[in-house]
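During data preparation, a discrete fold description was generated, and the record follows.
___
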Amino acid sequence: MVPVKVALIIFICTAEVGLVSSSPIIVRAGILLTENSTLMYDMRNVRPALEVAFARALVEHNVHFEPVWVAYDDKCKQYNALGHANDLMSIEKVDVIIGPGCSDDMVIVCELTTYYPLPLLIGAGELIDTTFMYPWLIRFSYNTYSLWIIFVKMMKLYQWKDIALIRDCCDFPKNVTTRGFLNILADENIEPYEIHFKTGSINKTAAGDQVIRNYLKEASVYSRSESLNLMVHPSIAHYDTLNPAPTGFPVTTEETF
């Protein structure tokens, strides 16, 4: 297996060897991304950049990449990401995997590439606060930890004392994200009031509007101070502009950051 060292900002690799050779170093790379989705890291968006990067690696670093392109579905699906990653490792015998971009897909593939040590390069996966448990993962994106730090600084600036957190109780990646936020709040000795909902239980209808209004009213009852901040799950972020607003306190979503 060729030892690989990441060198550029997004998905560009170079090989590092002890001896200089005129023959190019061969790196077999598996590229695992979604296809025909609206995601910015979709295969059709990323592939042209990777092809340019591979060409530069050969000219500038004498490294020849042999790509194995694998596109799956039009949305994030853990079982497909895991299955294709296993095929890339066991059948295609790749030296490195680039992708997947989805946070939950990334986590499940990281479990595999940690057990069977293999470099995994990610340009997304931003919904996971920390990746210290995955030593073979190199992630180039920002992450939610930095977003939570900004939010805590906002709390201190505006002297927010009470927080209501409306969150999905069943969405795995969002739960991971929320847990990181709760841990940071715990470090500040802040315990938010939590309101849970289930994925799919709220939709853009009059009934859905009423459900979220009830959540907001519940949060406002909890607040005993002049300023309450509400952190809502991105999937119901469109409700932060309900008119007329059922409460008078600030509403913040993860998408705000």
In short: The longest strand covers residues 25-34. The mean pLDDT is 76. Residues 43-61 form the longest helix (19 residues). Residues 127 and 144 are 6 Å apart (CA to CA).
